[in-house]
Amino acid sequence: MHGRVAKAAVKRLKRWLHLGHRWLGIATGLLILLWFGSGLVMLCVGFPTLTEGERLGALPPLALALVRVTPQAALERAGLAHYPARLTLAMRGGAPAYWIADTDGRRQALSAVTGDPVPELTAADATALAAVHPAARAVADLGTVTRDQWTVTARYDPLRPFRVVALGDPAGTELYLSAATGELALDTTRAERVWNWPGAVTHWIYLTPLRARAGLWQDVVLWVSGIALAAGVSGYVLGFVRLMRDRLTPIAAGPPGTTSPGWRAASSSSPSLSAAGCR
């Protein structure tokens, strides 16, 4: 009696495993293919970011002779009683300025000539700043952006909004300048912007309306990855069951080079598991 009940339970479990693996595979097959293809793109083109070399290379030579305000005086004018997370002296157009990043993320910019806060960046100011970039050709202001596909993460919050300036160079470079301080926050090229749509944006499900809500984006990624992982694990379980059955049940030898159904079931689930694991 107990043996028949156990066999019936195992049979039902196998049926649900078959159905689950089949329908989960159908539902996640396209996603797994997209993850695989987008991962290959990401190996060649990374997500746009500003390297330290790019940041320094975009700055004109520092005119120390124009500096009239000491770093200590600049901190006092900024109202800081402690040393900030970062204090930078650099050129802002034709005059030196202090860029102050406080420990809580707040940013300030003070003139190193007068000690006064620098005015908000205008379109003319932005094009003038971008014109000194080594790659600048036909500089054009593209307007103000608060958040877009390339500045969607929270790390850019202290610098928002941005003035976007096109350099007009063959690479199609665009600079993101903080409207509040004039700092260069990001640079992107045409190739990065084009290839990151089938690359990082697809792989990370990095659509701006979704990624701007960090909690929702995390939930979506975890749920989608979990479903794909379940499809892969169910395939391995079915493959293992078939292998055990084949070991206990003699079967006629097939043509040379053929594999057992168990190995085929297990191997067919490998891309699913690998794709889910990569994410």
Report on the architecture of this protein.
The chain has 279 residues and is an alpha+beta fold. 48% of the residues lie in helices and 14% in strands. It has ten helices and seven strands. It has helices spanning 2-44, 52-57, 71-77, 123-131, 190-195, 197-203, 208-211, 214-248, 261-268, 270-278; strands spanning 86-92, 95-101, 107-111, 140-145, 162-166, 174-178, 184-188. Strand 2 (95-101) and strand 3 form a beta hairpin. The chain starts with a helix and ends with a helix. The model is unreliable at 270-279 (pLDDT under 50).
Notable characteristics:
279 residues; alpha+beta; 4-stranded antiparallel β-sheet; 3-stranded antiparallel β-sheet; 10 helices; 7 strands; 48% helix; elongated; disordered C terminus
